Amino acid sequence: MMKYSLILLTLFSLNFAQTYCAGDQISTAHQNIIHSVGAGHSDYATGDEFKLADWNGALNGGSYSVIFVDMSASWWGPCQSNAPIVDGLETDFGELGVKFVTSLSDAGQPYSSEQWQSNFGDPDAGLVLDANQSSTGLFSLLHDSYNAYPTFAILDHTMTVRGKPWTLSSNGNTNSCDGNSNLLNGWSGGNTSNFLQQLLDECGSLCEGCSGDVDTDGDGLADECDDCLNMTGDPNDDMTIDVLDIVIVVNIILNGGANSPNFTECEITDSDMDGNGTINVLDIIQVINAILGQARFDAVDGMVDVTYDIRGNDLVLNFNSDVSMSGLELAFASDYLLEVETQNNLYSATALDQDIQRLVTFSMENNAFDNLDVVIKNGSLLDIEDIHMVVSSPVGTQLTTRWNIAEVQTFKLTDLQPNPFNPATQIQYEIYNAGDVQLSVYNVLGQEVASLYRGYKSEGNHSFTWNASHLSSGVYYVSMMMNGHVETMKAMFIK
Questions:
Q1: Are 182 and 173 in contact (CB under 8 A)?
Q2: How far apart, in whole angstroms, are the C-alpha atoms of residue 346 and residue 358?
Q3: Is 362 in the same domain as 325?
Q4: Which range of residues forms the domain containing residue 318?
Q5: Three-class SS of residue 251?
Q6: Does 370 share its domain with 440?
Q7: 163 and 121 within one domain
Q8: pLDDT digit of tens for each residue in the chain (495 aa)?
Q9: Which of 144, 176, 206 is the last residue of a domain?
């Protein structure tokens, strides 16, 4: 008995943190909290993830629901006694669109969610969530702190808490904020069944589910109820896959991909041709193939060797593959937009978004190539190890890339100490193969502001002290060049 009393006191204390009252609309953030399904039902299997937003038509594409929430403690007799009554309501109203869910405050003490469903309810009734006293669990968000177990909450199709009945057979209600029993938010009298029917009547056709015989995109929603005709490859939803769709996919990539806030969920979903949650050049190639309307090749895996060279202030990347390539995507950090050149017969686009520059290049006709040069103007200061690359095959599968620089990596910049600094810092570097070294400093515009060393260096570890007292505070790039190749480090000078 003491164990259960302690649990009850603990639960009461937790629930003061956040409780929705009758009349409150549950926030979008709380609707999107993910809960663990302890015992499955209908569209949810045990172990699945569930969120209230799944039942909000304003967030899920148009499928609205009235929701009945049972909050119980698995050890408490009155909760156990009410479980069959809740199941009876589910039998009467489930097929009418009312959703039923039980949130156990203490799954496993002593009954697990699955045991609760099988021992005290109907396995075909509503799903059961494992709350386990989480401060963001459905139990904690809705449980009435002033009320003993059991507690119920009834939500309308707008995710507004419309009732919290004391019992399932009366219209006695509490607002859960001040403990006063009253009749709130349109409770018309009678019992819980009467109120559920009232809310269904208010919801009207929104809660009747999608109807109609036409489902153009095959997603299970009739067109008349579908806010997003999500035919994959058709992000502009004109039911035609064409070059306009390619433009949208390209812009999504350049603006940050699937996490871009500048595009709708429908546009992003419809652009994800391979359904992996990532929008990249692979999806572009697959859209092109859908437009061409022909099978290209069997999916092949291959290796793409990537080398680089410094030509003046430009960084030149070469992609050479033992199989055909069809598209390329690059991403790298940059303080300003750099000009990029590729082959004339390829379509290329680049953009700078939140200090990340992205490039996509491909053939509109999906013409394959096995060698490609990409020239990044004034890109000699870029750190090649931080360049993200995606190379596509002609069927839109990703090819493996590797830097092939072992034969030219003759040195390494190892450290700047201190950094930030004032007025001097020590540049540390290692020479693998003796030769001529050029050590310089550039500003953020790519202009050389200091030539520190030019000459021969032997193998081994070296250092150079750079005094920047004659320069203004700001960001600088320490650059070391040897055998036509370069490494850089960012330095912060603060006077």
A1: yes
A2: 16
A3: yes
A4: 303-403
A5: helix
A6: no
A7: yes
A8: 333 333 333 333 333 345 787 788 998 889 988 888 888 887 888 888 899 999 998 888 778 899 999 888 888 888 888 888 888 888 888 878 899 998 888 777 888 888 888 887 766 667 888 765 566 678 888 876 545 556 788 999 999 988 877 677 655 555 555 555 554 455 555 578 888 888 888 888 778 765 566 767 665 566 666 667 678 899 988 888 999 999 999 999 999 999 888 998 889 989 999 888 899 999 999 999 999 876 545 556 788 999 988 887 889 999 999 888 999 999 999 999 999 999 888 999 999 998 999 999 999 988 888 899 999 999 988 988 889 999 999 989 999 998 886 545 678 889 999 999 999 999 999 987 788 899 999 998 888 999 999 999 998 899 999 999 999 999 999 999 887 778 889 999 998
A9: 206
**Claim to verify: residue 337 and residue 361 sit in the same structural domain:** yes
Query: What total of structural domains would you count in the chain?
Result: 3
CATH assignment at residue 7: 3.40.30.10
The tokens for 444 are: 């953020």
What single-letter amino acid sits at 255? N
Q: In this structure, is residue 308 part of a structural domain?
A: yes
Which DSSP symbol is given to 386? G
The tokens for 84 are: 């069959």
Query: Where does residue 472 rank: exposed (0-12), middle (13-18), buried (19+ CB within 10 A)?
Result: exposed
Do 168 and 145 form a contact (C-beta atoms < 8 A)?
no
pTM of the model: 0.47
Query: How many CA atoms within 13 Å lie on the side-chain side of 379?
Result: 23
Whole-number Å distance between alpha carbons of 118 and 173: 29
Report if residue 242 sits inside a domain.
no
Amino acid at 191: N
Are residues 433 and 415 part of one domain? yes
What's 396's domain CATH number?
A: 2.60.40.680
Domain match, 96 and 161 both: yes
- Whether residue 256 lies inside any domain: the answer is no
* Residue 436 placed within a domain: yes
CA distances, 354 to each of 334, 336, 385, 420, 489 (Å): 9, 10, 20, 23, 20
DSSP 231: -
Cα–Cα distance for residue pair 472/50, rounded to 1 Å:
55
Last residue of a domain, one of 382, 403, 424: 403
421 and 383 co-located in one domain? no
The amino acid present at 218, given as its one-letter code, is G
My answer on whether 338 and 434 are in the same domain is no
Q: Find tokens 């429908």 and name the residue.
A: 266
